[in-house]
Amino acid sequence: MIGTPSQSWSWARRNDWVAAIRGGVTFSPSSKTRLTHYDLERFRSDSLFDRLARAVCDAGCLPRKELYEAWEMARRVRRVFRGGRVVDLGAGHGLLAHVLLILDNSSREAVVVDAVLPPSSRTLHEAIVRVWPRLEGRIAFEQRGLDTVAISADDLVVSSHACAALADLVLDRAAAAQARVAVLPCCQDLAVNDTGALSGWIDGALAVDIMRAVRLEQRGYRVRTQLIPHAITPKNRLLLGEPRIGRAG
User: Fold this and answer.
1) pLDDT single digits (tens) 21-76
2) Count of CB atoms situated within 10 Å of the CB of 85
């Protein structure tokens, strides 16, 4: 179960990443500024998060927001889903896949997929592997269309900040294979995404995500809905689904 807000954020307060001050400027976890070696002093403890953050700082290529999004999403996913190959769709640098393997070593491998992989994705991977050598050779990077990836029922399909129709594609691909899935949607397009009959009562973006959860249930999934901290992103609705029956393993 997800803890209370105070419990979930205690580690953050302990490490001062929400309210850390440098030169009078708040260190915001929602910033799109890249983390670099200048930020290393902010992550000085031996906690798992701080070790990860230092690796990201060493890579010097990742926006601060992506670190916190991937960490918060991965923690919640691993409380529910263990094991399986991780399939990170629309993955960008692929940090989410790395964190999922760090948190659960029973997932033997991961594949990071995007139509265009950032050139610095390899830089980030190498920085993380220097800290966690056990990840060497276990994460594949594939630059290809997301609808061309083979998915099996044993996989764990994930996507962080899946924009507009991408979230629906990820859910459809996972459901077609009866694989477990976790999606953090964003940038809902009300001209394209389905709001059902709910838009007259509630915010259109929320209506889109509710309909996604409903459709997943209709396809035989047990659905969980959670939130990551709003201070990281207002697009913070996490949708998790697992087939009720029939999943191998």
Assistant:
1) 344 446 899 999 999 999 999 999 999 999 999 999 999 999 999 999 999 999 99
2) 19
Torsional sign, CA 60, 64, 69, 71: positive
CATH number at residue 106: 3.40.50.150
Could you give the number of structural domains in the chain? 1
Distance between CA atoms of 25 and 237, rounded to whole angstroms? 28
**Other residues' Cβ atoms within 10 Å of the Cβ of residue 47:** 13
Of 32, 30, 29, 51, nearest in space to 40 by CA = 51
Q: Residue 96 class from Cβ within 10 Å (0-12 exposed, 13-18 middle, 19+ buried)? A: buried
Evaluate whether 175 touches 181 at the Cβ level (below 8 Å). yes
Which whole-number Å values give the CA distances from 13 to 6, 19, 52, 65, 157, in the listed order? Answer: 9, 8, 17, 17, 31
Distance between CA atoms of 15 and 128, rounded to whole angstroms?
A: 20
- In this prediction the pTM is 0.87
For residue 31, is it within any domain? Answer: yes
Residue 23 lies in a domain: yes
The angle subtended at Cα 84 by Cα 5 and Cα 174, nearest 5°, is: 80
